[in-house]
Amino acid sequence: MISMANRRIQIQIKYKEAILGLILVIIGIWAPDFINIENFKIYDLIRNSITERDKSLLIMASFRLIILNSIRGLPHYLGTFIIAESIELILNEKRTNVIKTIFVIIIIPAVYAIINVVHHIRYDFGIPALIVILVILFLEKLDFSTISIPRKSVIVTLLLMGMQWLDIIPSLSRFGFGRGETSQDIKQVANFIHSEEILTLTALMFLIIFTVNAILITKLIHDQHQLIVATELNKQVEKELAEAKFKALEARNFMELRNLVHDLKTPLTSMQALVSMVGLMEENKKCKEYLKRIETSVDRLSEMISEILYEDKRNIISTDKLFNFIFAQTSPLPYVSMINYENLAKESLIRVNKIRMSRAIINAIENGYNAVDEKAGNIHVNVESKQGNVYIKVKDNGYGIKQELIEKIWHKGFSTRNSTGLGLDFIKRVIESHEGRSYISSIPGEGTCITIILKEVEDSG
Asked: Rounded to two decimals, what is the model's pTM?
């Protein structure tokens, strides 16, 4: 799609559809070279109907003329319709059909004029053509955006074939119908062999059949469009409700967690004070060493609680210390034996919320574990530093992800294994909150790699 826009005007062009429409218009201009009166042997039937005074032969000649005109006209009518469908004009954020109307009004008469010049034939632009143009303009005003162009084109085709029969009705000649040479000849012969009545009845019958079918299909397409719109609206409402419920649950859980963590700070503060006081009073060096270790552990625990309580809290930490903390948490888990860890940037420093970043990387490891075979599964964790960034890769040899699902895999609630689908969404949110990047590459049947990129920092002292 090509889009040209400024503050108030936006024009969108569907490139492929516009090209298809243009090709059809060109075919419509070229059609009289190989689809013509001689090929359809219409005048042979007209002459025979005069010689034998056979009304059925004249009706057959009329049929062939209608088919001829419909086949010749269909490409440029459909082409114009498709070109109009391919263009959207948005004025002040509102869609308008001005350009569609201009294209329809200009292209179809222009095609008739070009055919008359190129092929030196009188290709009559009559009232049926005007009616079809009005129908195309009407269809453009209807919002059938969910319906494919081929389905909408059926309406144009049926109406085109129906309107052609108006040119065959003798009594409509005085109103400007049937000005084409062949149409006039058929009506004159009908008058000569006294078959005007049967010709009129036949034309009216097929006019009604094609027109009624076009109206019924329009109604069906309209109902289908309404159903699709309603379904999409329901899906959107359900999605918004699900997201609202999830956010409410997430907010409640977060508040409960904050309250719990906040409550833990009080006894920790008391422990810190008591350990410091006992350390000052204790004279035994061994006991003082143990108290110092306890104090250090309490300080670390307090720091961890602060990072849980305050998501924006960041500390500088080396990748080696971060992964030591991560593997200390995963050591009792069943997949620890599957992990192959390689850190080529142990001294590289990153500024992170250690608790949330650890949880994000553990989620990536667990995602790999859920995708591998328990007997032959392998999860390779690789860390390296390049061009001022730290790259953390978690790669598994599992079943992989189809390419068309890669973009969806990050979405909240999406899962390929009937889980909550929150793990990857959490990873993405944590990494983005650290001004980092993350992406997934996968080959079905070979495995998946989650890459996390964080900025490397320098120790400020």
From this structure: 0.51
